[in-house]
């Protein structure tokens, strides 16, 4: 399969990134990050999450955050919603696109959202109905697609079954999450090949955490499988509080650099993205997780 001319990046730093930070981040610092990403030309920003603040305290200010975002035309500012309550809160906060999240592993589903996979899918049905009514687009996630912190290997067929349920209920795109970053390029190709038996490749996205340093290789493997949408996190922020040991998502700067090298357009200004990632790294008092940013900033 030939490589695409253009790839769409879904920036998950403000959500997947900051949800896992022990350092509290103020709403104004989150707003600065969202603004910096907007200025860098990012067209999709997952900015927050309408989940229980008892489960993920770092996402508590999401309504205030959405009220403060200076929206730029053509940019999607999205949020996670685990249940109808989360959807309603997101709607009230002016969110125009949400994401629901299921898992391919029963144990992870219980740990992450306190219900079975099938219960989670049942919970999403009223969200889909309400979303249709209000003209809200819904993206779907499947977690643990290349391994689970509690169950180990996950069969691609199981991922395909959950992804297919999300697609069939109306998610316009399903992002396959390597939550703990154990996937390798070979496993990634097999996974997309199996899932593409049920869902068109153009409706799938890749979401790679970089725990084992495989994420960029997995993205390249996915490109060869005809995947054209990838989730990434500025400065490599992130992890999931319910996946112990999972480090950050693949750094957006590194993905943009990879794609530029392949002649693939993203619409993102790499220098401005690096500035955004360094600013939030400074605020968090942590090292920048992007290799490209570190190289450029020390050059
Ligand atoms: P539960 O305890 O089973 O829910 O949690 P409940 O319905 O029994 O409610 C318990 C309490 O939570 C009640 O409050 C509810 O009002 C409240 P109380 O009476 O105790 O004061 N509540 C809510 N509050 C705010 N917003 C809501 C909401 N719903 C209930 N939406 C629940 C179930 C799903 C709420 C909980 O498990 C939860 O919030 N989990 C979120 C976990 C999470 O955010 N994980 C990280 C995101 S997923 C991820 O990172 C993976 C991804 O990146 C892809 C990948 O890498 O694989 C997407
Ligand atoms: Mg994630």
From TrEMBL:
Record InterPro entries: Aldolase_TIM (IPR013785), HMG_CoA_lyase_AS (IPR000138), HMGL (IPR043594), PYR_CT (IPR000891)
Pathway given in the UniProt record: Metabolic intermediate metabolism; (S)-3-hydroxy-3-methylglutaryl-CoA degradation; acetoacetate from (S)-3-hydroxy-3-methylglutaryl-CoA: step 1/1
Keyword Amino-acid biosynthesis: no
Keywords per UniProt: Lyase, Metal-binding
Highest taxon, organism lineage: Bacteria
Annotated ranges, domain Pyruvate carboxyltransferase: 7-274
Pfam families from the UniProt entry: HMGL-like
Entry's EC annotation: 4.1.3.4
GO molecular function list: hydroxymethylglutaryl-CoA lyase activity; metal ion binding
GO biological process: ketone body biosynthetic process; L-leucine catabolic process
Reactions that this protein is recorded to catalyse: (3S)-3-hydroxy-3-methylglutaryl-CoA = acetoacetate + acetyl-CoA
NCBIfam families for the chain: PRK05692.1
PANTHER family for the chain: HYDROXYMETHYLGLUTARYL-COA LYASE
UniProt family annotation: Belongs to the HMG-CoA lyase family.
Protein name: hydroxymethylglutaryl-CoA lyase
Organism: Pseudomonas graminis
């Amino acid at each position: 399969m030939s490589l695409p001319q253009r790839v769409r990046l879904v920036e998950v730093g403000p959500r997947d990134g900051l949800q896992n930070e022990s350092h509290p981040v103020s709403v104004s610092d989150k707003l600065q990050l969202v603004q910096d990403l907007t200025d860098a030309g990012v067209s999709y920003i997952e900015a927050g999450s309408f989940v229980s603040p008892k489960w993920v305290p770092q996402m508590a200010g999401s309504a205030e955050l959405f009220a403060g975002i200076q929206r730029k035309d053509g940019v999607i500012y999205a949020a996670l919603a685990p249940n109808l309550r989360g959807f309603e809160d997101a709607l009230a906060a002016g969110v125009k696109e949400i994401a629901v999240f299921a898992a391919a592993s029963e144990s992870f589903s219980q740990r992450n959202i306190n219900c079975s996979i099938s219960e989670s899918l049942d919970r999403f049905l009223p969200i889909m109905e309400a979303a249709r009514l209000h003209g809200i687009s819904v993206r779907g996630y499947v977690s643990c697609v290349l391994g689970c912190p509690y169950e180990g290997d996950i069969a691609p067929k199981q991922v395909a079954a959950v992804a297919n349920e999300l697609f069939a209920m109306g998610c316009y795109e399903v992002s396959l999450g390597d939550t703990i970053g154990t996937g390798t390029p070979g496993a990634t190709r097999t996974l997309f090949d199996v899932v593409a038996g049920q869902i068109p490749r153009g409706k799938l996205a890749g979401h790679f955490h970089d725990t084992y340093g495989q994420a960029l290789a997995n993205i390249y493997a996915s490109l060869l499988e005809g995947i054209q949408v990838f989730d990434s996190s500025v400065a490599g922020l992130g992890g999931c509080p319910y996946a112990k040991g999972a480090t950050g998502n693949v750094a957006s700067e590194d993905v943009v650099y990879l794609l530029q090298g392949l002649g693939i357009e993203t619409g993102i200004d790499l220098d401005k993205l690096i500035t955004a990632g360094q600013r939030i790294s400074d605020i968090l008092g942590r090292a920048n997780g992007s290799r490209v940013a570190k190289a450029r900033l020390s050059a």
